[in-house]
Design a protein that fits this description.
Helix content: 25-40%
CATH topology of the largest domain: Aspartate Aminotransferase, domain 2
Number of strands: 14
CATH architecture of the largest domain: 3-Layer(aba) Sandwich
Number of domains: 2
Order of helices and strands: EHHEHEHEEEEEEEHHHEEHEEH
Shape: globular
Structural class: alpha/beta
Bound molecules: 4'-deoxy-4'-aminopyridoxal-5'-phosphate
CATH superfamily of the largest domain: Type I PLP-dependent aspartate aminotransferase-like (Major domain)
Length: 361
């Protein structure tokens, strides 16, 4: 099979120029006489890669100087576990706004050492909407407020994140970072696993206001200390250097393509195209998320007759459209439309959906 349009939720499609450059540099990186996989993370060649990736990420996301950027391993889930250890006192309250599966995960990872409160949740309605700000029960004494900007499984996006007062706001942007302009200064910390919009799995970015790193937090091993990690330029131990390199290539590609403003326009067009195909199908396909909360990145949808699911997936695959099977929690289908997914891929999917409806409707 040739390269398909890959709608995987993550690890997700990477830009082809990034894969080609990595392929070209795989055996011999610059004039090191070795692969990027084979050189020391402390040597000048890798340090240059690492610093350039950070500089480019700072440019791409307009990260203010008073924020540290930490490149971590362990995925976004590990960040979720380390947030309370670094930024809350033992047993202190932390407020979580839950709009889907990943918000619940964040609570589960934190609850062992703090009082992780559900400040608001849309679970009763099956996570088909975000909890309205008027329902958020925030406490001024909380260590932080945590939100999930985009719920990858439920396809719910919290855009225009409301004000939360003086308590530091921390946001999981794993599946929507760099998909449109973002004012980082509104957040005390923003984090994202790279495997959707920033590059490969195996590296996670934490952008954190340096002031927050002054917090004492809780007893923890030195390797779990974000302040120490920031001071050591994310090299307390051997970092995931290959992943860091690929992230750098992906970030550079996004800058070359026009940056987050351009990806914001593309994301809006791609999402509009797919939702129009769903809504215009007369019920053959349906998306159950409240229109204002529909994710631009992950679009779950259902066929009116689940008995058609297998044929839909098989024929989509034959048409060069892969990884459309929905998450097991929801069933049905899900199309993820991250930055590396070209508009032509979404057009091909919409056309395939119309064709499938014509032959099975
Ligand atoms: N948060 C969100 C929004 C996610 O989509 C995911 C993974 N899909 C995670 C957290 C967990 O990331 P990881 O598997 O890298 O730990």
């Amino acid at each position: 099979m040739t390269r398909a349009y890959n709608f995987s939720p993550g690890p997700a499609m990477l830009p082809e120029p990034v894969l080609r450059q990595a392929q070209a540099e795989m055996l011999e990186f610059r004039d090191t006489g070795a692969s990027i996989l084979e050189i020391s993370h402390r040597g000048a060649d890798f340090l240059d890669v690492a610093r350039q990736a950070e500089a480019d990420l700072r440019t791409l996301l307009s990260i203010p100087d008073d924020y540290a950027v930490i490149f971590a391993s362990g995925g976004a889930t590990t960040v979720q576990a380390l947030l309370p250890l670094n930024f809350a006192a033992p047993g202190q309250a932390c407020d979580y706004v839950v709009s889907g599966h990943w918000g619940k995960t964040a609570i589960r990872q934190a609850a062992h050492c703090v009082e992780a409160r559900v400040a608001a949740s849309s679970e009763v309605g099956g996570f088909r909407d975000v909890p309205p700000r008027s329902d958020w029960q925030l406490s001024p004494d909380a260590a932080y407020v945590h939100v999930t900007a985009n719920e990858t499984i439920h396809g719910v996006e919290l855009r225009d994140i409301p004000q939360v007062g003086g308590v530091p706001l921390i946001a999981d942007f794993s599946s929507s970072i760099a998909s449109e302009p973002l004012d980082i200064s509104r957040f005390a910390a923003v984090y994202a696993g790279a495997q959707k919009n920033l590059g490969p799995v195996g590296i996670t970015v934490l952008i954190v206001r340096r002031e927050l790193l002054q917090r004492t937090g809780q007893p923890r091993a030195p390797i779990f200390d974000y302040g120490a990690q920031a001071k050591a330029d994310s090299m307390l131990n051997t970092p995931p250097s290959w992943n860091w390199y690929l992230l750098g290539l992906t970030v550079r590609w996004m800058l070359d393509e026009g940056g987050v403003a351009e990806f914001g326009r593309r994301s809006a067009r791609k999402a509009a195209l797919l939702y129009a195909a769903i809504d215009g199908s007369g019920g053959f396909y349906r998306n159950e998320v409240a229109p204002a909360a529909r994710s631009r990145m992950n679009v779950p949808f259902f066929l009116h007759d689940p008995a058609l699911d297998a044929a839909f997936l098989a024929q989509a695959r034959q048409a060069g459209l892969v990884a459309l099977k929905g998450h097991r929690v929801l069933g049905g289908m899900r199309a993820s439309l991250y930055n590396a997914m070209p508009e032509a891929g979404v057009q091909a999917l919409a056309e395939f959906m119309r064709e499938f409806q014509r032959s099975h409707g």
